User: What shape does this take?
Amino acid sequence: MAESMDLFSRTPTFHDTDAAYILPNEKVPPGFSLGSSCLNGPYYQIRLIVQSSPVEHARLLDQHNSLVALVKGRIVHAPVSSPDTVIDVGCGTGIVTRCLSSHFPTARLVYGIDLCPVPIQPGDDKASNLNFICGNFRKLAESDARFPPESVDYVFSRLLLCGMTDWPGYVRDAFRVLKPGGWAEMSDYVENMFYTDDRIAPHVEWEWLRSIRAGGASKGLDLDAGLNIYQYMKDAGFVDIQRWEYRVPCWRSAGDERPETRPMTEHIIGDKWGLYWHMLPKLLDGMGYSQEDVEKLRMDMRRGVAEEEGKEVLFCVTIGRKPDKET
Assistant: This one.
């Protein structure tokens, strides 16, 4: 219980950036490690091997392992083979970047790009193709000599939902740096909940969810990005676009039939990591809500994310290819 209380009672710091980034930005203490390998067990998993990790990085680790289980270890959906240059946009702690480095051992360059410095891990120096950049991909794509037009084979991003304020522009930037024939893969949630029998529409009937979505819109976020990326890719000029929809049940017994969903179900139920708890006031900042209003919405949120049969969350993976040049 003490550990659970710490997740909610702590006062997280947030990214010091002009982007509307909603998730906490907590420093990595000395001795923090994500593990030495991302190939562990039936899925690509990274195991926490120290106890002193900060809460946000531990949450990201749990989220990564849960998502990898959800997609049955299929981190890469695009039909990419033998790429020379790979980019992981918004790489966070570099978990996926390291997996991409291992997945594409012949790639000459695998870049992880994030707004904050990526914690260096044991073994990073042994991966000759692994590189991390602290910066904004949108700005790097405009002027950085490492990313001229048509220089990248594969652009990957996952969970930019709480930081991306210009999805069409981001997708166009990805299109511009890709070589003809190169692939983009973008994965994200739909910040909503769904019922298998359509008994209610939570985004309409739940005040806390309406508030989160309104707050996100006021800051330029697209909280339906998981579904909307398909159209963003189409508008940018991508072809061969495909989308996979992974539904995460918010009740544990569903895992009896779909065991791959169990870790993510546990990650979501009850706001285990305090994600919504801290997101909600950040999203509602400047919208006229009093502290009392925020606390009431927090209580409503805790009830909304409680375990309930028939309730689901949607995670989508979308891929698209830049057309080959006409000869």
Summary: Residues 215 and 251 are 28 Å apart (CA to CA). The mean pLDDT is 86.
